Amino acid sequence: MKNPTLKDIISTATARLSKAGVDSPALSAQLLAEKVFGLDRLGLIMEMGRAVDIEAAARFEVLVQRRAAGEPVAYILGIKGFYGLDFKVGPGVLIPRPETEEMVEKVQDSFDRNAEFFFADFGTGSGILAVTVAVLFPSARGIALDLSPEAMTLARENAVQHGVADRVQFVRADFNKPVLAMESMDLIMANPPYLSEAELQEVSFEVSQFEPVSALVGGAVGDEDIRASVPLIAGALKKGGTVFMEIGYLQGRAARDIFESCAEFSGSVDVLADLSGHDRIVVAKKK
Ligand SMILES: C[S@@+](CC[C@H](N)C(=O)[O-])C[C@H]1O[C@@H](n2cnc3c(N)ncnc32)[C@H](O)[C@@H]1O
Predict the structure, then answer these.
(1) What's the gap in Å between 161 CA and the centre of ligand 1?
(2) Parallel, antiparallel, or unpaired for β 269-273 and 279-285?
(3) Is 229 in the pocket of ligand 1 (CB under 6 A)?
(4) What number does the ligand 1 atom closest to the CA of 174 have?
(5) In the chain, which stretches have pLDDT less than 70?
(6) What is the rounded distance in angstroms from the CA atom of residue 111 to the CA atom of residue 128?
């Protein structure tokens, strides 16, 4: 019997993943094939007619089975792109989302490339915000906080990978406690857990079953970490310092009220929309 081609096994996998009801079945099958066969997107297209040996087909099949069970592609590949950089990711750490890239754009609009400044990243996860900002601003230094040991390990590895480990300190700590020195930061970036418990029931099972609840849910109505961290952020920022915080698309009004009720931010709070037009980032300047 003739060995199947790459095209054959990818279309069989796509049909199987569609039946399993996972997101983006065709793209998932292609990305898994790229990993197993060591090809990039163009290489995959060029090699579609290539006959696949039994051993490689079996390795591909193992990954397709994991994907069919709902495991996100990023965890299977162990990597996710963010702002043009590759970040290691794994179970226990949130998979970076494209909307978070918009915060980096806002930071780029706020500082000159060669500016010397201190920043903090509240809930660093895989380290995307701290590491990307350190890469983009070679004279900036930062501190990245997270409670999760898995996050600490991966974020440090990502900082080493991108050559910024000497400028970013990773500290396993609760960002809802006063761990930073008062008035020490020019910039604080935060992407706290902000889903409500009800919203967790509505997200796809690929998210709720595989990504850490501690990275997703911010208490019963989703705003616990926003409420708890804003006064600490106000204390840790220098006068004139800026905070960018990612929020849920329904939290614009509540988050604005929380920031406005903090005397240091009152009158200098804005809620920015993401590319889909949803409220997404609170920006506030300390008076
Ligand atoms: C929404 S994820 C953001 C991860 C990453 N910054 C990103 O944008 O992909 C929130 C992160 O905050 C961490 N976290 C949750 N509560 C925390 C707390 N009280 N103190 C420190 N880290 C916390 C979680 O472990 C998780 O890594």
Answers:
(1) 21
(2) antiparallel
(3) no
(4) 20
(5) 1
(6) 18
